[in-house]
Amino acid sequence: MVKAEKKGSDFEILLSTMNRTSLSFLQDMFPKDDFKNYSILIINQTSKDKQLKSDSPNVRVINSFEKGLSKSRNLAIKNGEGTICLIADDDVKYKTHFKKIILEAFKKHHKADILTFQIVNKKGELYNKFPNIIKHNKNTVSTVNSVAIALKRKKIIENNSFFNENFGLGSAFETADEYVFLRSALRKGLKLFFEPKVILMHPNYSSGRAVANDKIIYARSAVFYKYNGLITYLKLGWHLFLLIKNKELKSAHFFKKYQQGLKGINDYKSLLKQGIESRKS
Question: What pLDDT score does 281 carry?
Fold first, then answer.
């Protein structure tokens, strides 16, 4: 792991990626701008023989030999230097003036600890059906994508409100990392606001959108149990029914998928018994 000297800045992009050996991918992320105009911290999860180095003074790199997106996010937050930080992946394309939009939103919502924004797909269509709200609650955070999250880094650290490393790509339950993160932040009293402005384009495909995939049903069932307890067994059945209704799942696969969900619930309950997980977080 390589750490760079911290200098401090008002705004920093916390970027998670894997197996990079060149900074060239940053050019695609800023199609109408220059990445050298921004402070960027890259967490490159990789192997010791495939490390990334930065020859750009505005870009710091930490080569991490751990796996898991939530671990990457947490490492970035802990080693960040920005007052306000934007969570990022390597497949987004930022819109013109996105930084200005974010900083002005924090001035507008001066009490906000976390702000979320809108994103669009390649066709320019809104990625989700975003709620008509100003402040988030436990229901509206389900509409948030992690790359649309900006935060006051010190507030996250002070409240020990990090990403849950049991959720997200590369972890035990490979979805809902941002949802669990934001639910935890709400529980700890952090203030979450929504600004209905687009800051980036994200490809249509997202692992979390493969809703009928075994891994997603397994993971989502664990999330259901975390927040709903015993009601989860009914909630899982209703969830699968809705997938069938929306033609995202064939009715013939209902029981097979329900079994996958039960496995996710049981594995999550095992983590609870071991003290690795808590339904209070």
Answer: 83
